[in-house]
Design goal:
Largest sheet: 5 strands, parallel
Low-confidence stretches: none
CATH architecture: 3-Layer(aba) Sandwich
Structural class: alpha/beta
Helix content: 25-40%
Distance between the termini: 29 Å
CATH topology: Rossmann fold
Strand order of the largest sheet: 2-3-1-4-5
Number of domains: 1
Number of strands: 5
CATH class: Alpha Beta
Number of helices: 11
Shape: globular
Oligomer: single chain
C-alpha cells in the first residue's frame, strides 16, 4: 500500500531540495506542485512560463486531487508530493487531505520576503502561502486533534541527517541514507517551470549549509512581514526539532 505524503510549503523555501531528497529514495515517486496549473488558470499571476505551464498540466482541482490520492505511476511504496500552500485558493475542496499524510515546511518570513522580493512583487501575504498554511493546519487539527508534522527549513539545513531521521519517524517511513545527497541536474519529474526557478537546486548535490543573512525586510513590506510572522510563529512553536 502506498504512503501518500503531502508537504505544504511556500515559495523561496527548500521545498525542491526536499523533493530531491525524497526522490533519491529507491521506494519513492515524487510530484512537483500538481495544483500549479489550477492556480495559474484561476488567477492573473504572471509567473515565468505561464502559458507553458498551463499547457503542460491538468488545471481542474477535482481531477488533480483524485489523481494524487490514487496509485503512483510505478506503484512505489511512498508518493511524495510537493505542494505550494498558496495554490489553495478560497473555496477549494480540501477533503482529499484526509487521505494523505500532511506535513508543513516553514521558513522565517524575513528570509522568504527578502528572497522573493528580488524577483517578484510582494503585495499581499497570500502570495507567500502563510495564511493558507495556517488555515490548513487548523482544519487538520480541528478535524481529529492530530498534529501534522511541521518542519523548519533552517533546522533541516543545520542538521540534514538528524532532522530527516526525525521527519521520517514522524511521517511513518524508514529513514534512508540516500536522502542526504543526490546527483546534480534536472529531473523528468520537475515541472516545466524548473528552468525559471530551479537553477540552484539543479547545481546542488545535497542540502546547502545554513548561512545567516543580515538583510532587512524593505520598509514598504514590513506590514506583510508582520502578518506572516504571526502565522509563522504559530507553526514554528509546534515544529519538530
Amino acid at each position: 500500500m502506498t504512503k501518500h505524503i503531502a508537504m505544504w510549503s511556500g515559495p523561496r523555501n527548500i521545498s525542491t531540495a526536499m523533493m530531491r531528497s525524497f526522490e533519491n529514495r529507491p521506494d519513492t515517486f515524487v510530484s512537483d506542485e500538481p495544483f500549479y496549473g489550477f492556480y495559474l488558470a484561476n488567477t492573473d499571476i504572471d509567473h515565468p512560463g505561464r502559458k507553458e505551464v498551463l499547457r503542460s498540466m491538468e488545471t481542474d482541482w477535482d481531477t488533480v486531487s483524485k489523481s494524487i490520492t490514487g496509485f503512483p505511476p510505478n506503484e512505489e511504496k511512498v508518493w511524495f508530493q510537493k505542494h505550494m500552500a498558496q495554490h489553495n485558493l478560497p473555496g477549494v475542496d480540501l477533503s482529499w487531505t484526509n487521505l494523505v499524510t500532511n506535513c508543513f515546511l516553514i521558513r522565517d518570513p524575513r528570509e522568504v520576503i527578502i528572497s522573493y522580493h528580488k524577483k517578484y512583487d510582494v503585495n499581499r501575504a497570500e502570495l507567500l502561502g502563510y495564511p493558507q498554511q495556517i488555515e490548513l493546519y487548523r482544519m487538520l487539527t480541528e478535524k481529529d486533534g492530530v498534529e501534522p508534522t511541521i518542519i523548519d527549513a533552517k533546522d533541516i539545513l543545520k542538521d540534514p541527517e538528524g532532522m530527516l531521521k526525525k521527519v521520517c519517524i514522524a511521517i511513518g517511513i524508514p529513514f534512508m541514507e540516500e536522502m542526504l545527497s543526490w546527483s546534480a541536474g534536472p529531473r523528468e519529474t520537475d515541472g516545466v517551470w524548473a528552468k525559471y526557478w530551479y537553477n540552484k537546486v539543479e547545481a546542488s548535490t545535497g542540502f546547502q549549509p545554513y548561512v545567516e543573512k543580515n538583510e532587512k525586510v524593505p520598509y514598504e513590506l514590513e506590514g506583510i512581514y508582520e502578518e506572516c510572522l504571526v502565522y509563522y510563529d504559530t507553526l514554528h512553536r509546534k515544529r519538530i526539532y
